[in-house]
Structures are given as C-alpha cells and as structure tokens.
Amino acid sequence: VTVHDPRPVILDTRLRFPLKALALNSGKPPWIITAAxxxxxxxxxxxxxxxxxIRLKTTSKGRIDLPCLLKYLAxxxxxxxxxxxxxxxxxxxxxEQLANYFVxxxxxxxxxxxxxxxxxxxxxxxxxxxxxxxTKIIGSRRYGRDLVIWGEFQ
Length: 154
What we know:
Blueprint: E1 9-11, E2 31-35, H1 40-48, E3 52-56, H2 66-75, H3 87-95, E4 101-106, E5 135-143, E6 146-153
Parallel strand pairs: 1-2, 2-3
Antiparallel strand pairs: 4-6, 5-6
C-alpha cells in the first residue's frame, strides 16, 4: 500500500509540541496523542492551529499506552503506521512486539547521547520473549553516505 499523504501522529505525553512547528502548516493536520492530564489551555491553542489533540490512557510509567493507541487508530481506519522516533518510542514498540518491519538508516554521524534502542529486557515472569534476535533482511540501498537497510521481524 502506497500512502502519498500520510497522517502525522505525534506522541507527546506532556503536550510540549511547539505552537510554531511546521507540521501544523503542511499536508494533513497532525493528530497529537497526549495524556489525559495534559495542559487544557495548550490543547486549545494547538487545536486552534489545526491539530487534533487526543487524550489517551497512559502506562504506569506515564507513557502513552501503545496497544490502546493502535486500537484507537484502527477504529479510524489507520491500520499501518511508520514509527519514527527516539530511543524510548522505538524501544517501546519493540518491547510490546508491535513492529512487523524495520527500516534502519546508518549514517556516518553521531548525534545525541542516547542509544538508538534502549536495552530490551525479556520479562520471563510475564512469559514474554522479545523476538528481536531474528530478522530477515529484505533489501538495502545507499543514499549518498547513508546506508538504509529494511526487513521484517520473524
């Protein structure tokens, strides 16, 4: 399925999204997913600029409940998402085993101080095994100095 104009869905538990962000003025207006207790005034300001602010339940650690988010999106006929985020967001999707495919970009620059993916711990008490040890590389391509590899989790 090719999507030419995807819906931006932004996870922002504390509703810190900048009021001058370019995402508010390009393509489809973003949906900003936030915690139930986020700032009501900021919500109104973002919505007056075209965003749709959606309050969803959070985990015990205060993060957006990802299965709840995906169910919300599915009810609105969004059945495929591309996760682009920092270490915490990506790791959360991987820990919850909510990813089927991956795209890894390797670039010759080091940016930031976090690992690309936080440590993934298998919680045997919960009977969960993280299935990240097996992947199938589907393809790769160089873009200038960057290398992009894509595949699927098995």
